[in-house]
């Protein structure tokens, strides 16, 4: 079965750093675009960053320059290095694996990990 397991969430002070990791299993990891999404209370889930199979990255404007997404195909993991964290970054962060197939999308989601930025 497909599993995406996030780890690394927690409580951090504003300006601090945190690294999230997502371990994937049950998929051919290298062909999937991986991404991090987040959802704050009362808000829609939003894209944070994505990284394609050829390591092309995309970031939300709100995190650009502060967050770095990376992947290690040998370990089937995708990471999100978060620096200069702000209270607005507080959310549940979800790992996503996606693959386009014609007009369809194959998506897998992790269970999420809480990130709280507060003093």
Describe the secondary-structure layout.
Elements: E1 3-7, E2 10-12, E3 18-25, E4 33-39, E5 46-51, E6 57-59, E7 67-72, E8 77-82, E9 91-101, E10 104-109, E11 113-117
Parallel strand pairs: 2-11
Antiparallel strand pairs: 1-3, 3-8, 4-5, 4-9, 5-6, 7-8, 9-10, 9-11
Explained architecture:
0% of the residues lie in helices and 55% in strands. By secondary structure, the protein is mainly beta. The strands form two sheets. Strands 2, 4, 5, 6, 9, 10 and 11 form a seven-stranded mixed β-sheet that branches. Strands 1-3-8-7 form a four-stranded antiparallel β-sheet, with no helix packed on it. The N and C termini lie far apart (39 Å).
Query: How many β-strand runs?
Result: 11
Q: Uncertain spans, ≥5 residues at pLDDT below 50? A: none
Distance between the termini: 39 Å
For the biggest sheet, the summary is:
7 strands, mixed
Mean pLDDT, all residues:
97
User: Which descriptor suits the 3D outline?
Assistant: globular
| Helix fraction bin | under 10%
- Spell out the helices and strands N to C: EEEEEEEEEEE
Evaluate the radius of gyration. 14 Å
Alpha-beta content class: mainly beta
Approximately how much beta-strand content do the residues carry?
over 45%
Helix tally?
0
Q: In summary, what is this structure?
A:
This protein is mainly beta. It has strands at residues 3-7, 10-12, 18-25, 33-39, 46-51, 57-59, 67-72, 77-82, 91-101, 104-109, 113-117. Helix content is 0%, strand content 55%.
């Amino acid at each position: 079965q497909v599993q995406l397991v996030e780890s690394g969430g927690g409580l951090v002070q504003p300006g601090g750093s945190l690294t999230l990791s997502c371990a994937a299993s049950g998929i051919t990891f290298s062909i999937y675009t991986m991404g991090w999404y987040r959802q704050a209370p009362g808000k829609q889930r939003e894209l944070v960053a994505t990284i394609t199979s050829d390591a092309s990255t995309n970031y939300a404007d709100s995190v650009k320059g502060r967050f770095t997404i990376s992947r290690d195909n040998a370990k089937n993991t995708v990471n999100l290095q978060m620096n200069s964290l702000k209270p607005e970054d507080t959310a549940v962060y979800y790992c996503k694996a996606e693959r386009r197939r014609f007009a369809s999308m194959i998506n897998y989601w992790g269970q999420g990990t809480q990130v709280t930025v507060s003093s």
